[in-house]
Amino acid sequence: MKKPLCVWCVLLILSVLTLFTLSVNLYWFVSNLILLVKYPYFKFTLFFRLSFLLRVMVTTLIIWSFIAVLKRKKHARKSAVTALMLMLAFFAYSHFSVSAPPLLSYDNEAQELGAVLGAVIEVLGYLVIVLRFMFSKDSKAYFSASQ
Fold this sequence. Notes:
- This protein has 147 residues and is an all-alpha fold.
- The chain contains five helices and no strands.
- It has one domain.
- Helix content is 79%, strand content 0%.
- α1 packs across α4 and α2 packs across α3.
């Protein structure tokens, strides 16, 4: 059976998320490791270990979901939806977090409204792909054919 379009879209999203999380986590690990080597008695090691463990778990979930969808495993849809929703939550948190300065500045309210509408359309498109992947008959048939 051929892969449905929603499965291809999810595979593409998961592959991009895999590359993104691997590169970000590698940069985070190296920069914090340099900090720990430079200041060995800094009370940062517990946070570093917990954060590293969380990052490894999330990255492993994304990679495992990608491989499971690719090989049509039994729980591939559930793990892929979990990984996609986790990434949506992380992106929403980073969007609404005030820790970083905004990437773009807007001159007037129309530009701000356009940015908000663009973000809403992006999230709705993402959710449509995820919901179609989870509940479509083609997707269910694709994963049940391997049983």
